[in-house]
């Protein structure tokens, strides 16, 4: 490993618990949460709301905005924790290029559990009908450097956050001064 992990991306398909785990992890670690969904341009939100999956072109500007925000939070001396689906290897590499030492926590779950969770999520633009396309796009990060895979189907949010926090501590999390 060239760099200690100084920032994290909580990644996975819709419904895996990225936001909940990020919030719990930030409470444990004193890190700063970045909600990736809030950086989607209106066109992406409209497309997903209509049940149309995003493509690489749709995600390009969004990923650039996330890279900028990771660098901005890091430059403030804070430890960022970004929620982002990061479904493809090329997306993860784009995010890694923004910040040396960026680690990934992959929240795995089954398509059935994801669909069930998303169908009961109030007020979100991502319909359960897009779950299948997310799994079709997903390139598992297992085996990539600085990546921890956790089963989000069987662990509670708190358990996932604690596991991610301990892993981060082991791989370079610096305590706030």
Strand and helix layout:
Layout: E1 7-11, H1 18-29, E2 32-35, H2 42-49, H3 56-75, E3 80-83, H4 89-98, E4 102-108, H5 111-119, H6 131-137, E5 147-151, H7 157-170
Parallel strand pairs: 1-3, 1-4, 2-3, 4-5
Structure report:
The radius of gyration is 15 Å and the shape is globular. It is built from 7 helices and 5 strands. With 177 residues, the protein is α/β, with parallel strands linked by helices. It has a single domain (7-170), classed as P-loop containing nucleotide triphosphate hydrolases (Rossmann fold, 3-Layer(aba) Sandwich), CATH 3.40.50. The chain has helices at residues 18-29, 42-49, 56-75, 89-98, 111-119, 131-137, 157-170; strands at residues 7-11, 32-35, 80-83, 102-108, 147-151. α1 (18-29) crosses α7 (157-170) and α3 (56-75) runs parallel beside α4 (89-98). The protein starts with 6 loop residues before the first strand and ends in a 7-residue tail after the last helix. It has a 5-stranded parallel β-sheet with strand order 2-3-1-4-5, sandwiched between helices.
């Amino acid at each position: 490993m060239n760099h200690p992990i100084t920032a994290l991306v909580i990644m996975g398909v819709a419904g895996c618990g990225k936001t909940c785990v990020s919030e719990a992890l930030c409470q444990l670690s004193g890190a700063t949460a970045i909600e990736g969904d809030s950086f989607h341009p209106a066109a992406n939100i409209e497309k997903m709301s209509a049940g149309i999956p995003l493509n690489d072109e749709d995600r390009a500007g969004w990923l650039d905005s996330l890279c900028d925000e990771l660098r901005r939070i890091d430059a403030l001396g804070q430890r960022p924790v970004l929620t982002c689906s990061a479904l493809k290897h090329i997306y993860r590499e784009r995010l890694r290029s923004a910040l040396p030492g960026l680690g990934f926590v992959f929240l795995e779950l089954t398509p059935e559990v994801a669909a069930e969770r998303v169908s009961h999520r109030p007020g979100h633009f991502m319909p359960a009908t897009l779950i299948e396309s997310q799994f079709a796009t997903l390139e598992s990060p297992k085996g990539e450097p600085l990546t921890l895979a956790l089963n989000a189907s069987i662990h509670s949010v708190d358990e996932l956050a604690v596991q991610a926090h301990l892993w981060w501590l082991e791989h370079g999390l610096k305590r706030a001064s």
